[in-house]
Amino acid sequence: MRLYLKGNYETSIYQACMEYPWKMWFKERKGLQVGFSYARDDDFYFSVSLDKFSSIDERWGMADFRVGNDPWATFKYEDINLNFEDSYESDGREKGDCLRIITTHKDILTVDKRALYIMAIEVVSAIGGHISENDKETWLSVKEFKTKHADLLHLTYDEAVDISLGEVVVMKVVDEPLWEELDRKREEYIRIHGEVELDDEEE
Fold it and tell me: 148-179: buried (b, 16+ CB within 10 Å) or exposed (e) per residue?
């Protein structure tokens, strides 16, 4: 699943993004803070995933994620990745005109879709921009986006998890197809331009 965002990229979200997971899922449960994995930099890159089995939520322990030989081929892991649209395939050397949020899978659990939409709203609110759900064909303001997805956004984290536990056993796990295209473009870009040369400090 993917969304595109545009706005004023002079605005930094570097500090604020560390509070996004609290809004996307929860801040604390039973006195303990939410468990999540993340990576970020100061150029609109933020990648975050709810640690479902370390999230202080006993309900995930009862979920049947159907883990086989490949534990990534389940809804146990759902990475929500924010970056400039041309950054991944160019190894960070190009940006493009828009930001993109992309998930691991094409269809995602309600708890993660709610989180995805909240991230989009937080980022677009910070940069004073718009959101596209159809590969940049049309754009919505934050108000329009909130109105369109009001039913989902009004769910609490607990309500979203209850719905997701039912989805886990019926939804088919399908990788987001854009990742395959991006990997192909990345290989082609590196073949033409070479690997990024790191400074001594970066190494």
Answer: ebeeeeebebeebbeebbebbeeeebeebebb
